[in-house]
Amino acid sequence: AVLLEGLQLDNLAAVEMLRANFEVSCGRCGARDTVTIASSAVASGSGSSSSHQAAATGQCQRCAAAWSIVMRPHFVHATSNSLCVIKPEGCCPVDLLPSLLGGQCGECNAVMSLRDVQVGLPFSRNCSSCHKEISIYMAAVSFVPKGPPRSAAASRRGVARPGAAAARRPRGKASGGGAAELRPGQPLPALGTCKHYRHSYRWLRFPCCGMRFPCDLCHEDAVSDGHPARWAQRMVCGFCSSEQPLALGCRVCGHQLAGSSANPSGRSTRFWEGGTGCRDPRRLDKKDPHKWRGRNKTISAKQSRVGPKPWSGKGGAAGGGGSGSA
Ligand SMILES: [Zn+2]
Ligand SMILES: [Zn+2]
Ligand SMILES: [Zn+2]
Ligand SMILES: [Zn+2]
Ligand SMILES: [Zn+2]
Predict the structure, then answer these.
(1) For residue 95, what are the β-bridge partners?
(2) What is the ipTM of this complex?
(3) Strands 243-245, 234-237: pairing kind
(4) How far, in Å, from the CA of 319 to the mean position of ligand 4?
């Protein structure tokens, strides 16, 4: 079941999913993809009960594994936050993306469409018939599994690499979603870190496309149309997967998730990082090439003419040679 957490309906009697966009991860390779499922109620309105269902099939863009999702929409109203039941095969739903909902005005019962409703962003419009303002807000979405989890491939992959090391090691954007469903209370893949920010333990929800990424660079890598990222206002904690307003710490589990926005890695870096990190050569890490830049402006060609000095082992190291030969 797909539950809407922190749901607020204003002047809306009922809401129903008409065209859903889900983010899924491939059950075999973990690649992320987006799925659109259009309910048959798009044409018929919300008069009938929720007996209709809709389905979508496709295949993974990376490993070509086939998947399918069957969706059965529910009526969402003040006392029920269950949006729909979905049955995924060969994939795992990980997020609800901006979708088309149908809403019924609480004042005049007119039914109208609510376009691009997204998690974490208030939506409002005026009723098409009585012109009263209606609005909907959902703070988070959660996927509550039914039956045994179908993530054999993903868990096998997790066992191959021991838990702590796998969590600490940043993985690529696509393989980062390799772990199965995201569940509240469970940590995100790689604790929400990415290859760009290894000490930022969260995902951000970008309002431009409604999708979650560890950082704006991951967003840049992943979006197909190349739209620029808008500043995120919501985040998902890397330790407990709870979605909440952007902050430096998680208000659910209390973990510190990031440093200040000027220093998102949350530590005093010892690397150059394109000029935004450490700029003091004495404090730079010895593996950073900037530490040695400009130290030895004149590089002797003698070594290439006569070979390495016999007492220096295997030829002077690029950095150490300067002081050692005095
Ligand atoms: Zn795949
Ligand atoms: Zn109305
Ligand atoms: Zn975006
Ligand atoms: Zn990143
Ligand atoms: Zn947390």
Answers:
(1) 23
(2) 0.88
(3) antiparallel
(4) 31
